[in-house]
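Predict both folds.
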Amino acid sequence: MLKRLTKIVLLTLLFGYITIGVLLYIFQDKLLYHPTPNIKIDYPQLVLHRNGAKVVVHVLNKGHKNAILYFGGNGESMAQSADYIAQQFPEFTCYLMDYRGYGSSTGKPSQKAIFSDALALYDRVKKKHERISVGGRSLGTGVAVYVAAQRDVSKLALITPYDSIVDVAQGRYPMYPVSLLLKDTYDSLSFVSQIKSKTFIILAQNDKVIPRQNSQRLIDAFKKEQLKVDMIKNRGHHNISNDKRYYKIMQDFIGKG
């Protein structure tokens, strides 16, 4: 009787383990991407037509010689961020890309598509500007790192970055072979050696989304003379930009381009 009961319990646990693993695999896109709604704003748009998808980029402060490409978090609305970013960087033309499926962009988000779209954006605007700096927040740091590794970037700013999405997810689901389940890895660590630009990393002291060790592994991969790191105290992953130091330290780093 005891053996039979033990067998039933073990089979139940195994079934539960497999079921959760299957669900994680099936719904991984919904866990990683949180598309934002289409909000109309009074800024011109640049539209990239990419393999049947329409990728919309909001253009702030047109006409400046230097530019900033900004890639947001997995649930960050570029339309809602636009006014504040335009005010904080008035001497730069800023490009905010709605990932596929976000805002008024069409298609489905994926690492392959977003990386490709980000490079296409850089290549599209490069001739208009003397220098291009790149910034990313949370998920967008993986995109920014990739662009900086593939193109000539003046400055690179990373807000609450990670080493890879695989490592972050493995920490959350230690019982599962996450590297075998995830399709989109955003392996920033693997691109660091290709980055030549000065880089600034901003951390949130109370970040509960990106564990400190994941950010630290990325920090450790950069050359010390290439990197500057700062921490916003008493702020978390989602409210870091509410601190008055947030934009000031980025402005000081970006400088004139």
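Second protein follows, with its predicted structure tokens after the sequence.
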Amino acid sequence: MNLPIVYHPDYVAPIPEGHRFPMPKFRQLYQFLLADGVATPEQFHTPNSPPKAWIELVHTPEYVQAYYEGTLDPKAQRRIGLPWSPALVTRTCTAVGGTILTAQLALQHGLACNTAGGTHHAFPSYGSGFCIFNDLAISARVLQQLGLAQKILIVDLDVHQGDGTAFIFQNDASVFTFSMHCEVNFPGTKQKSDLDVPLPAGMDDDAYLQTLAQYLPDLLCEFQPDLVLYDAGVDTHVSDRLGKLALSDRGIFRREMQVLSNCVAAGYPVACVIGGGYGNDLDALIYRHSLLHRAANQVYRQLRL
């Protein structure tokens, strides 16, 4: 079997022209992976929307219901940063289902990738920073409830701190949150992860990868998770307009190889989501997101040898 990849064919929602959130990237990433020979059609798995009760393992019923119905107050909607629509509700729930399915496939096969996910700014009672429901947190809770995994490590290498995820698990020893992010970037008020590694603006490939190497192997050895949830945000790239770090395409690929190789070699299953990435050149952005899947394919082939 080839590397499992999760994608929903209808994973798109209408966004007003000129809106800065690059929603089309999800479908175009899927198309690019096929066109460039990174993946074949049989590798893709289609998720379902999860039961509302699963979302409410993390989010308050009042917030979930208000978002489903489109009755959030204007301030709460502005904090999310996306215009509400029924199609966006469907997309949001499917995204959560996608990460849950990715995690289940990772437990079965050792490694799996999503073509979306990483909504780590969502808190239990509100959304923030383009994030509505926290797919990483919900997936962790669902796997625990189903008895599929108990100790879960969240490795968040998006350029922004995973503040919502850190808050959700702040008093829970069964889920370890590791966030390596740009210190002088959103969110302005940071939460306390189990391990935060704030980075200076402008950090380049070698310094970044050396820093990651100081923490990840020891963390895996000490925590010994049943599953790793990996948020592979590419807003660490030098060209990202919401970033402030200075990684190159090659640096991001090396990062993905470093994370996945460390986890797989140690015997820890990894479920990957693409995280953030923002740029005016959509083709370049999609290529950067594809680096996760390229690295995962390479590591998966080695895993199967």
